[in-house]
Amino acid sequence: MVTEISAFEASRAPRFGRAAGGMRSVRAVIRSSGRVGQVLRFAGHFVEMAIAMEVGMIALGPVLSLLPVADAVNHSPEASALAMTASMVLPMAGWMLIRKHGWGHAVEMTTAMSVPTLVLVAGSLAGLLPHSAAAVGMGVLMWAGMLGAMLFRWRDYTGRGHHAHQR
Ligand SMILES: [Cu+2]
To answer: How many CA atoms lie within 13 A of 145 on its CB side?
Structure first.
């Protein structure tokens, strides 16, 4: 019995060693200045901001429903697209400031993510576009805007550690 356990432990030990080594090399790749490291850090920043947006949407939804504007938001596709964009973009910008990306980049990304929706809302209210257009701005163009703003600043969002983002 004892020998069985020790044999089991012996067989597992190298596996843990390999796993630890694997973790170390994953970290080394993430920190490296190579292409793969850059892409991983870029993707990491994107995921962080996406999480801030989802958390904001989930957290601010109930708050919004308590406000006097709730009725307008529920009945107007334009108002609901604007409210949802704000509830996602503002926490994203806040998170960028916390992560020391700087005001410049936060404002730039906020603009890239909000302007398409504002344009579609304006067009919809003017009767030039269908009422459903506003939701396209929020659901698709907001994410495209975020990705675009990040690609535009590729070097800043692939930098190692958050100090790389400060100018
Ligand atoms: Cu951002």
So the answer is: 24
Residue 140 Cα to chain centre, angstroms: 14
Q: Could you tell me the distance, in angstroms and rounded to a whole number, from the CA of residue 122 to the centre of ligand 1?
A: 24
CA of 99 to the centre of ligand 1 (A): 10
Which H or E element spans position 121? helix 103-125
Whether 95 contacts 134, CB under 8 Å: no
> How far apart are the CA of 43 and the centre of ligand 1, in A?
12
User: Could you read off the pLDDT of 99-126 as tens digits, one per residue?
Assistant: 999 999 999 999 999 999 999 999 999 9
The Å distance, Cα 97 to ligand 1 centre, comes to 9
Q: Which helix (H) or strand (E) holds 160?
A: none
57, 87 contact by CB (below 8 A): yes
50 touches 61 (CB < 8 A) = no
pTM of the model: 0.76
Measure 79 CA to ligand 1 centroid, in angstroms. Answer: 23
